[in-house]
Amino acid sequence: MNHDVRAVIFDAVGTLIHPAEPPARTYAAVAARHGIALDEAEIARRFRAAFRAEEERDRAAGWVTSEEREVERWRSIVTASLGDERCFPELWKHFAQPGAWTVDRDAATVFDALRDRGLVLGLASNFDQRLLRIVDSFQELTPLKRHVVVSSQVRYRKPSGYFFSEIVGILNGMMPECAVYVGDDLENDYRGACAMGMRAILLDPHGLHPEVDRIGILKELTGRFNSW
User: Fold this and answer.
1) If we measure between CA atoms, which residue out of 126, 123, 121, 122 comes closest to residue 188?
2) pTM score of the predicted model
């Protein structure tokens, strides 16, 4: 990294925040309350297939989204995962609660070190308005609150160039190459940011993508920005 880095923008789910328990376990518990008995492994398999199907649907639509589309998309995923739409309202509400999430234990330390170097921080995520409540509920995420992009509000999802142009827009005229995007998804985060001219670092805890600029855990960012 060169000395012209002026901002670091983070992905949310999978990068900074994580479900408090495996989603398949949460889904199974809700399903059981509706009289549906499903194995967690089977739910996880169905979930992955349903998630991929919705991603392809959004790709075909040019990554256009909205609050209504996000509700529709998650309703479809829940229904495909559990075979019953009745579970959706409870799960939608559950994942709107701060208690459903945890923040990476190194996040606050990393943010403090970045801010000490005068860097602008932000958050940009494929999510809906529920994310704003979650961010407000965690003190560790306070340094990001001035610069937030949520896909349902800007009407496009990652990896759309329109989404990443919104990031550039909130950085007050900063050139794209002066911003670093940190995320855990190769296509949506890393390649999406690079296509916009931003720099990118992939959070790759399993070492699956040695061909790109990556870190294994969040606190490894400190070794990068020491030279910025």
Assistant:
1) 126
2) 0.95
